[in-house]
Design brief:
406 residues; alpha/beta; Rossmann fold; seven-stranded parallel sheet; six-stranded parallel sheet; 13 helices; 15 strands; 16% strand
Length: 406
């Protein structure tokens, strides 16, 4: 049986944002394909979380920073351990990668410990392949990289091209968690045997960045279902999102520049329903006419079944917008932006509508609101597009072939 070791800092078991859903989906897929899946989580978990993970993923071997799952309930002990590890790591130049200073935001206060711990896990598991989720954890393979004989296949799951994401945030006036250049990112990615792109456009960019390197595309699969027509008044425009800076920028800009004139035009026949952690930062918008702030939810299907139109007016970011994939896979009439359509270009202005300027989005939404026929047409096209683009075979087969061959 093939063994794969996945390294991540994302709390994938929560499935509360795009990155966690993608990683969780990948883990489930490998487990279902007779592959022994081992996951190292670069973080601390408690016993309740560990039990939850084992309940969700029956066949998964899970490791965390707190000593190979020997979890301690004492808060005081956890704090002491964290401080001790941070102090220990600072003695070993935790801010470098292959001798080069890491970009601000990459350096981890537990870096030395985590690399040592990961090496220990690797030696115990003896995986055929290692997948590192996000380039910010690339330092974990620094020692493994030099073991030329019987070395595992090293793969990096980029999620997005980080230097382009940083530039996108900067252009929108938003702060980004790391400042990284194209040259720095190339240096990190070049240490891996296989580079995983999340969508076709970024695959082409990575091929230009890393000539001769094997680049494969692994999108995000999602179950596809037809949307149950709602259609009763008020028509419900929906937004689902986490409380990230780019989501805050998107929905507050929409409310202030599009929703108010839209509500004035259509009056009580329209509502804006907002779901997810983004609601935690929207308290000041609760009193605006027609806006319903629902907060966190358990059942995404139930959310979409209650909506007529979905929006994602995102202005910055990279990779692929999982919320857009999910909306299309639920056959929702969707309005997004050029940024939101990245990785979905084949369906642009066919399976979904796209608009950037506020007045353009206003006009597109007005058309959708006024025309049940257009909403029905978009729903059918979204369904067909999602069936073609987001099935498991299309998304994962190339990666599965790579893992099985090695």
């Amino acid at each position: 049986m093939k063994k794969i070791l996945i390294a991540t800092h994302v709390r994938f078991w929560l499935e509360d944002k795009g990155s966690s859903k993608r990683i969780s989906s990948l883990i489930r897929f490998f487990c279902s394909r007779n592959i022994s899946v081992h996951v190292y989580y670069a973080g601390f978990v408690d016993n309740d979380t560990l039990k939850k993970i084992k309940k969700i993923y029956d066949d998964l071997f899970f490791y965390a920073d707190n000593f190979n799952n020997r979890n301690f309930n004492s808060v005081i002990f956890k704090k002491f351990t964290a401080r001790a590890l941070a102090s220990y790591s600072r003695r070993f130049e935790y801010g470098t990668f292959f001798g080069e200073i890491q970009p601000k935001g990459f350096a981890s206060k537990y870096r030395f410990y985590r690399k040592s711990h990961f090496n220990q896990i690797k030696n115990n598991v003896l995986p055929n392949s290692i997948i590192v989720e996000y380039v910010s954890l690339a330092y974990l393979i620094e020692d493994i990289y030099y073991a030329y004989e019987n070395r595992p296949l090293l793969l990096i799951d980029t999620h997005d091209i980080l230097y382009l994401r940083y530039q996108s945030f900067k252009n929108s006036g938003l702060s980004h968690w790391v400042e990284i250049s194209r040259e720095q990112e190339i240096s990190y990615l070049s240490k891996f045997d296989i580079v995983i792109a999340i969508q076709e456009r970024e695959k082409k960019i990575l091929e230009d960045m890393l000539p001769g390197k094997t680049i494969i595309e692994v999108a995000y699969p999602c179950a596809v279902k037809k949307h149950g027509k709602v259609g009763s008044l008020p028509l419900k425009i929906g937004y689902v999102g986490t409380s990230s800076a780019e989501n805050q920028d998107a929905i507050t800009g929409f409310i202030e520049n599009i929703w108010l004139p839209l509500r004035k035009k259509f009056n009580e026949s329209l509502s804006l329903d907002i779901y997810g952690k983004i609601c935690d930062v929207l308290e000041g918008y609760r009193d605006i006419d027609g806006i319903n702030i629902y907060g966190r939810f358990e059942d995404l299907e139930a959310v979409y079944d209650n909506l007529d139109i979905v929006i994602n007016p995102i202005r910055s970011g990279g990779g692929i917008k999982v919320k857009n994939v999910e909306a299309l896979c639920h056959s929702m009439p969707l309005l997004t932006t050029d940024c939101g359509s990245q990785g979905l270009e084949r369906g642009k202005n066919d399976a979904f509508l796209c608009g950037n300027a506020y007045d353009e989005q206003f006009e597109q939404l007005s058309r959708l609101i006024a025309s049940p026929e257009l909403r029905a047409e978009l729903s059918l096209k979204a369904y067909a597009f999602a069936r073609r683009e987001f099935n498991e075979a299309k998304c994962y087969n190339e990666l599965l072939d790579v893992i099985k061959r090695y």
